[in-house]
Write a structure and sequence with these properties.
Chain B: One of its GO terms (molecular function) is ATP binding. Chain B: Keywords: ATP-binding, Nucleotide-binding. The structure holds 2 protein chains of 2 kinds. By secondary structure, chain A is mostly beta strands. Chain A has one domain (about 5-320). Chain A is built from 5 helices and 16 strands. By secondary structure, chain B is of the alpha/beta class. In chain B, the strands form 3 sheets. A 6-stranded mixed β-sheet of chain B has the order 6-9-10-3-11-12, with helices on both faces. Chain B has a 4-stranded antiparallel β-sheet with strand order 2-1-4-5. In chain B, helix 4 (about 120-135) crosses helix 5 and helix 5 (about 150-165) runs parallel beside helix 6 (about 180-195). The two termini of chain B are about 35 Å apart. The chains are: A mainly beta, B alpha/beta. The interface of A and B includes residues 337 and 344 of A. The structure holds adenosine-5'-triphosphate and magnesium ion (MG). The site of magnesium ion has 5 residues of chain B, from helix 1.
């Protein structure tokens, strides 16, 4: 759309803790052009953080939980805000949650952070830092619900040989707005799985990103979303391969139904000159169930080295396949049930990978509820 | 006792710039339970079109004629109603449905066709036995429907469905193609089990006579140019085996 002529790598160059370093977006910027700014409730214009999102943590016994002030030196080390709302959240949060998984500890159960919005009428800001020390392993669930106008940054520091699996569930009420940056920084031979499930909210914009500090890092980013009438669900991914021999996989799948249901998926993958031996693949698929929906799906792959193991991307959006429906119906299955089976199957291939039983069942039930609408 | 009756069926496809193309040009055929019919014909003669039209595929437009099952108007039914009424189509190219497992699919289909959900234990046992009879690896129950199946595996699964759904009339579209001899025998046995089970009729569409050594038809129909151009008994298949379709292709084209 005219603006984006610069290479991908330069688009993500700017980062700062200072809100003033980012002009107020007008909607013409590459990173804002798909987002309806009118519905951001001034999160991009310095909305005062008068609201509150309550954070409750149910941690595995091996995981240390702290609530800390702004001056804690561990905050903001893995991630420097890359856009204005992120910088605003960084400037405005009052208390942060720090989870630490000590060296070589293996968490015996998932650690659940419940972020509960109580009132969408005023803005709330948050910050979470998860530190998984070398050779430790943990699963963390970020469960967002209630009514909120919420912007936050989440940092995942995954140490050498450590494993972190994260599920971020956006199960907001219809009146919520949520903008979040979720950045993972991987040490040598670290692995990270980031699962994003977006179901509720008026406007949700999640930006998961991954950077590697040393070779051998492995990141898998999965996403499932179901967009209803009037909802705007946006996912903006960035995987920055700046060291050799790292791997990334991205698979995001969504379904849309109803007037003005809008899904945005941006998948930016950069393989820098230093990123020799990179192995990456990203995929986004959208299943359009009714008229009146809109999908913007943009995979961007910038390769600055000739030495890759694999680099690919794909994006496909379309309606239910008549041949699928015909086959199921030809075996007596009524059309509506056939439709459900196909949608369930399409999203289920990802949902099945959610390792936390409770979350997986919840997502399954939520998809059924969406299909009942 | 079931009867599928097709009268003067005319079917078109496509409505693009070049207009609809008439593929079936007046088909008459009656299949009763207890009977096995073979339809044989050259590529492109409209055999699959006939099968799809009976099953109700949305791409095919019926422009004239009737299809009834025991007097009921099949053409007025939706695709799933036809299946529940007792029609079955084993497809030439079974469709891959990602994320829908074979067992989930079979259970949904059995539930729909029988009108009540079988008990899970009973169903699992039944499915296992049916898979075993067709030499299908039990692991297939958990795989996505037809996804990554070989041509032969897909065809076995069509017959698995046939045996579990127990329709009144089965249309088998080139179920023999892509099968090696062993698979052909296994699949033929399945068809024969189905045929022997009682009140069932079979309409076997094939290009080759090979399968007719295992599944013996009482009636053979030669299909060319979108209609039946000759009919006879099993001996007609022998003639086709020796002489090919050449003379019918010409006859079909000129009529
Ligand atoms: N969807 C379609 N659009 C356009 N033409 C079609 C369509 N389906 C079938 N046809 C045409 O109709 C004719 C009959 O096709 P059909 O598949 O019924 O033949 P067939 O006898 O089953 O052939 P085969 O032995 O190769 O399976 C062919 O000329 C084919 O190209
Ligand atoms: Mg055919």
């Amino acid at each position: 759309m005219g603006l984006e002529t610069k290479p991908l790598s330069t688009l993500h160059e700017r980062s700062s803790y200072d809100v003033a370093d980012f002009p107020v977006p007008t909607g013409r910027e590459e990173e804002w052009r798909f987002t309806p700014l009118r519905r951001l409730r001034d999160l991009h214009k310095g909305a005062e953080g008068l609201g509150k999102a309550l954070v409750e943590v149910e941690a595995a016994p091996e995981v240390k939980v702290e609530r800390v002030g702004r001056d804690d030196p561990r905050l903001g080390r893995a991630y420097v805000p890359g856009d204005r709302v992120s910088a605003q959240a960084y400037a405005a949060f009052t208390e942060a949650t720090v989870l630490t998984v000590p060296k070589e500890a293996v968490a015996s159960r998932p650690t659940v952070l419940r972020i509960n919005g109580e009132d969408a009428g005023s803005a709330a800001y948050g910050h979470t830092t998860v530190i998984v020390e070398p050779f430790a392993q943990a699963t963390v669930v970020l469960a967002h619900r209630g009514s909120a106008t919420y912007a936050d940054n989440v940092e995942f520091v995954v140490g050498d040989g450590a494993k972190l699996s994260v599920i971020s569930l956006q199960d907001w009420e219809d009146d919520s707005v949520h903008l979040s940056h979720q950045h993972a920084r991987l040490g040598r031979d670290a692995s990270f799985t980031g699962f994003v499930v977006s179901l509720g909210g008026d406007l949700v914009r999640i930006a998961p990103s991954v950077a590697y500090d040393a070779p051998g890092g492995d990141a898998e980013l999965y996403g499932v979303y179901f967009v209803d009438a009037g909802q705007h669900l946006e996912h903006r991914l960035l995987v920055d391969h700046a060291v050799p021999h790292c791997r990334s996989r991205v698979d995001y799948r969504g379904a849309l139904q109803g007037q003005d249901a809008h899904a945005v998926w941006i998948g930016d993958v950069i393989i820098r000159a230093e990123g020799e031996g990179t192995d990456t693949y990203e995929l986004n698929r959208n299943l359009v169930l009714t008229d009146g929906t809109r999908v913007d799906s943009v995979p961007n792959l910038e390769i600055l080295t000739g030495e890759v193991v694999g680099a690919g991307h794909a994006s496909a959006s379309g309606r239910l396949d008549d041949e699928h429906l015909f086959y199921l119906q030809a075996r007596g299955i009524p059309r509506d049930e056939a439709r459900r089976m196909v949608v369930r199957g399409y999203l289920g291939q990802l949902v099945d990978r959610i390792e936390v039983d409770e979350v997986r069942e919840k997502v399954r039930a939520a998809i059924e509820a969406e299909l009942d609408r | 006792m079931a009867t599928l009756e097709i009268r003067d069926l005319r079917v078109s496809v496509g409505d693009g710039s070049d207009g609809a193309k008439e593929i079936l040009r007046g088909v008459d055929l009656t299949v009763r339970s207890g009977e096995t019919h073979a339809i044989m014909g050259p590529n492109g003669s409209g055999k699959s079109t006939l099968a799809y039209a009976i099953a109700g595929h949305p791409k095919y437009e019926i422009t004239a004629g009737t299809v009834t099952l025991d007097g009921e108007d099949v053409l007025a039914m939706s695709v799933d109603e036809r299946a529940r009424a007792g029609l079955f189509l084993a497809m030439q190219y079974p469709v891959e449905v990602p994320g829908v497992s074979v067992s989930n699919f079979l259970r949904s289909a059995v539930t729909a066709v029988r009108g009540e959900a079988p008990k899970l234990r009973v169903f699992t046992k039944e499915m296992k036995a049916a898979m075993d009879a067709l030499s299908i690896d039990p692991d297939f129950a958990q795989r996505s429907l037809n996804e990554g199946f070989s041509g032969g595996e897909k065809k076995r699964h069509e017959i698995l469905q046939l045996e579990m759904l127990k329709p009144k009339i089965a249309v088998l579209d080139e179920t023999d193609s892509g099968l090696d001899v062993d698979a052909l025998k296994v699949v033929s046995e399945g068809i024969n089990r189905f045929g022997a089970a009682g009140d069932t009729g079979v309409l076997l569409i094939t290009h080759y006579t090979r399968i007719l050594r295992y599944v013996r038809p009482e009636f053979v129909h030669v299909f060319a140019g979108g209609r039946i151009v000759e009919e006879g008994g099993p001996e007609l298949a022998e003639v086709l085996e020796n002489e090919g379709y050449e003379k019918y292709v010409k006859a079909g084209a000129s009529s």
